[in-house]
Amino acid sequence: MNINLHDSRGYETISCDVLVVGGGAAGLASAVTAARQGKNVVLLERYGFCGGGAVAGLSGTVCGLYLATQHASAGPEQIVFGFTEEFCQGLSERGGLSDPIRYGETWTRVHDPLKWRMMADHLLVQAGVTVIYHSVAMGVLIEGGEKTEGVIAWTKQGPLRINAQVTIDASGDADVVAMAGLPDIIGDNGNVQNPTMIFHLQGVDMDRFLRQHGADTIMDESVSALIVEKNRSGDYNLPRSKIWLFPTTQPGELLCNCTRINGSDGRELNSLFYRDFSEAEINGRTQATEYARFFRDHLAGCENAWISDTAPQVGIRQTRQLDGVGRLNNSHVVAGTKNRNSIARSAWPIELHSGDRPRVQWLMDDYYDIPYDCFIPKHGTGLLTAGRCLSAEHEAVASARVTAQCFAYGHAIGHAAAIAINNRLSPGDVSPDEIRTMLRCDGAHLD
Q1: Could you read off the pLDDT of 82-94 as tens digits, one per residue?
Q2: Which of 55, 67, 57, 71 is nearest to 100 (CA)?
Q3: What three-state secondary structure class fits 261?
Q4: With 391 labelled, which of 38, 211, 228, 373 sits at a CA distance of 20 to 30 A?
Q5: How many CB atoms lie within 10 A of CB 191?
Q6: What pLDDT is attached to residue 354?
Q7: Which among 278, 252, 250 has a CA at the least distance from the CA of 263?
Q8: Torsions phi, psi of 132, nearest 5?
Q9: Runs of H (alpha helix) within 45-182
Q10: Which domains can be identified in the chain, with CATH numbers?
């Protein structure tokens, strides 16, 4: 039997200076930054909105803004600015971002996912970015086996060929890197952090909840012990005992980060595999319902609460990453290593999600640098990465993947793409000093 791949719909071809694949925090920042430098920018996004893990995954917080410290009375000390600060300020003005709230030894801010989407739309339209929602890159255009020249995208209209001088892989999963056959890494020898189904719980008596459980969004050991007890008794199925509950910008609402999703057979799930990704969605919604039942039965203020929504998709912490020219090592994070080629900084802890309790390792009163070469492929030209698919070791990415840093990466990589085009350089040959100069002009506060 002779069976051929067939699609009667014709190709459309468009061209641009910079193509950004993925509209999460990093992709948004890359696209807006490059467009503000006068570049013709196209952004591909598979959903009908931007936000990536922050919105589609409902992670719901802007983590990574502040130093960690045991001197909590000093208040939050912000270390990430530039595009990150611009976005947060705009979101706050729209009533879509909370004040800083305690998260263990640091602080975070909770955002409204609808207002996040609208803020992103505003910035993209204002900058003149061509946004193509409901589209997925399904192949890479390669010249001479070396230079990335854009992608072939799937759309409802039909295949779309997008020619670009510089392509930025902000897919979160290094999809373009993989399609181009460039070196990549997957977790710790293929083992990645657990996905999580995050959900909103409404109808919470917040005064009673906060009086009982305090202002720290990481629930205390008494709650963890009760989860362990009830899980062992068989009354509930609660595989994760250390949980995080965040009051949101909406009255009587908690953002619940508490599930630990495995396969029905107990295996660890990796969303790069379609069976795992699909099973994670089903098991995640089931598990969210079980945690909500436990909250109603046992947490003060939650007696009459209900799930108003689960995330559009499970939250993904780690999948495939670039194996780049440089690599952020675990030791760089724990030692607070500084780097003269830095284009971003982070003070977020190593936060590994596996087993019944996430492991958190804090870096106190310090930060580490993330250098530009963590976003440059070892081979080929015309391609950069941005976001959590940076080149980093397993534990390092458990710190470097959060929202404030992804904004910062995108801000820097958008400038790098524009500089490369202006000077007819391969992106890998752009000077980090020149990127840093541009970032400082945008208020990034890099030393």
Answers
A1: 999 999 999 999 9
A2: 67
A3: coil
A4: 38
A5: 12
A6: 67
A7: 278
A8: -120, 95
A9: 83-93, 113-127, 175-179
A10: 12-190+320-441 (3.50.50.60), 199-310 (no CATH)
